[in-house]
Amino acid sequence: MNEDKASAYGDERLPRYTSYPTAPHFSDAVTSDVYARWLGELSPDLSASLYLHVPFCRQMCWYCGCNTTVMRSDAPISAYVAELCREIDTVAGCVPHPLKVGHVHFGGGTPTIVAPHEFLALMALLRRRFDLGPDAEIAVEIDPRRLERPMAQALGEGGVNRASLGVQSFDPVVQQAINRVQSYAVTAAAVEMLHEAGITAVNFDLIYGLPHQSVQSCRETARQCLALRPARLSVFGYAHVPAFKPHQRLIDEAALPDGAERRLQAEAIAEVLSTGGYRRIGFDHYALPDDELSIAEREGRLHRNFQGYTSDACDVLVGFGASAIGRLPQGYVQNEPLPRRYSKLIGEGGLATVKGYALTADDRLRADIIERLMCDLVVDVGEICARHGTDPAPLMNAPRLGDVVRDGLARIEGHVVRVPDEARFLVRNIAAAFDAYLGQGGRTHSRAV
After folding, report:
1. Is-above-0.90 flag for pTM?
2. Are 95 and 42 in contact (CB under 8 A)?
3. pLDDT tens digits, residue range 285-297?
4. What is the pLDDT of residues 25-50, one digit of tens each?
5. Is pLDDT above 70 for 1?
6. More confident residue, 328 or 1
7. What's the CA gap between 203 and 400, in Å, rounded?
């Protein structure tokens, strides 16, 4: 592949395709009444995942792109947890039967900012209102700097069996530049507390493209991660969007690496982790060979959702909390993003839905193609079109698909589109060839690499 072309594609700003269509295309046409109706139409044979969003942190990391606010006191957090409980009751009451739940994910923000007894109460409520299977995966995102032993013990007692720790970088210069000082020792202590609580499946999140980051510091961070042997690692490229996230203006733009350097950093991490025994999943995840994510990838049942690559094959995603997104067979729904407004809506006894998207037949077709391409790096467009009862010719003749094939990012064999391994890191560029809404929506996405 031509290096200049690779760099140009890597600099493109594209969706991560954790959903299709992506969130910028949601509108207020989907109201709380629509969501209530969709919930009431759910079939009893469907399986569900639950996502609970806690939009609070004790300190703002300057690179952060999440929906979160700094909260110093505990009282507003406790009040928010009470509204979460009320929303759970309201949503469960809209479904004519207990939803069968296979996955629960606590995201943020910092979910472990809630008190241990509040977390246990939340888990007890989920078990009362939903059919939570004994083998369900219950995962929580954790800031290792804020984890204390009572909370780790509560996570274990509540049934958490997977934890995701934010690491980002162990380079102290980078940590100072992003306002997140977190030593290796602090991270190791958090892992030990989780293991003592019975939570052995621990994931790490890393970021490349941060200020003052180098290929060597990326390698060193990856090597240090190997010593702690996480089950999985997610490796994300930093998305610098200060117009969208004002706190990112505190980052020195002159210290950010360019596109070519970002690609070298990503590949350096990939090399260390692959050599260290991790299986590369998609374009930005890594897992030990015996981890469920690796098994799902080998067996062709890998999926992609708002948390990235997953083995979660549930039919329904129910989101709780400010800004949480849900996915139902009928379409997407999203809650009010501001915690105060969210709490007001829930406190009035209703749902907090403020926008969403009703899926069309064409959306479902393209979503299937994009997911398989993102997960498997190969997709049989003809086979998927046959299942959807449509002609593959318009999709195969898309101008952008011709461009990526000509530039060496993809190969076509009949109606099969295949991504060569050397272009794996540009799979989002290839998926974009099947995106009917590309360039619409008015939101800045992250760089492809």
Report:
1. yes
2. yes
3. 999 999 999 999 9
4. 999 999 999 999 999 999 999 999 99
5. no
6. 328
7. 35
- Tell me the β-bridge partners of 304: 309
Assess contact for 216 and 264: CB atoms under 8 A: no
The candidate with the shortest Cα–Cα distance to 1, out of 431, 313, 429, is 429
29: tokens are 């046409």
The 3-state secondary structure of the chain, one letter per residue: CCHHHHHHHHHCEECCCCCCCCHHHCECCCCHHHHHHHHHCCCCCCEEEEEEEECEECCCCCCCCCCCEECCCCHHHHHHHHHHHHHHHHHHHHCCCCCEEEEEEEEECCHHHCCHHHHHHHHHHHHHHCEEEEEEEEEEEECHHHCCHHHHHHHHHCCCCEEEEEEECCCHHHHHHHCCCCCHHHHHHHHHHHHHCCCCEEEEEEEECCCCCCHHHHHHHHHHHHHHCCCEEEEEECCCCCCCCHHHHHCCHHHCCCHHHHHHHHHHHHHHHHHCCCEEECCCEEECCCCHHHHHHHCCCCEEECCEEECCCCCEEEEECCCCEEEECCEEEEECCCHHHHHHHHHCCCCCEEEEEECCHHHHHHHHHHHHHHHHCEEEHHHHHHHHCCCCHHHHCCHHHHHHHHCCCCEEECCEEECCHHHHHHHHHHHHHHCCCCCCCCCCCEECC
Q: How many residues does the chain have?
A: 449
Contact of 336 with 354, CB cutoff 8 Å: yes
* CA distance linking residue 332 with residue 367, whole number of Å: 13
